[in-house]
Amino acid sequence: MAGKVLISIENNAFHITRTVLPAAKNDFLIVGLTLDELKAYAPLDAAYRVGGSVLTLLAQIHPGAFGTWKVPPPLPDGDA
User: Fold this and answer.
1) Please, which residues have CB within 8 angstroms of residue 22's CB and are 6 or more apart in sequence?
2) Mean pLDDT per 10-residue section of the chain, whose length is 80 residues
3) Which one of 17, 21, 25, 65 has the fewest beta carbons within 10 angstroms of its own beta carbon?
4) Are 19 and 10 contacting, i.e. CB atoms less than 8 angstroms apart?
5) SS3 for 34?
6) What is the spatial distance between Cα 32 and Cα 25, in angstroms, rounded to a whole number?
7) What b-and-e string marks burial along 14-47, b requiring 16 or more CB atoms within 10 Å of the CB?
């Protein structure tokens, strides 16, 4: 399954969207937060959460691209 991940800020909201190619009508929002919600996290925690979401999506879209490497599970709140 080919696809792409779009990360954007629009209308004061942070989005991570996955598209299954070639049909763009299959776009679906993975993460949708206002910027205030995202900024409520400590910077390291926000980076861990956003990075983990992106890597998980890329691993799903491109199976085998990371070999045996696995994305770690999310940290409990406040542990990043």
Assistant:
1) 2
2) 77 81 64 85 87 81 80 60
3) 25
4) no
5) strand
6) 18
7) bebbbbeeeeeeeeeeebebeeeeeeebeeebbe
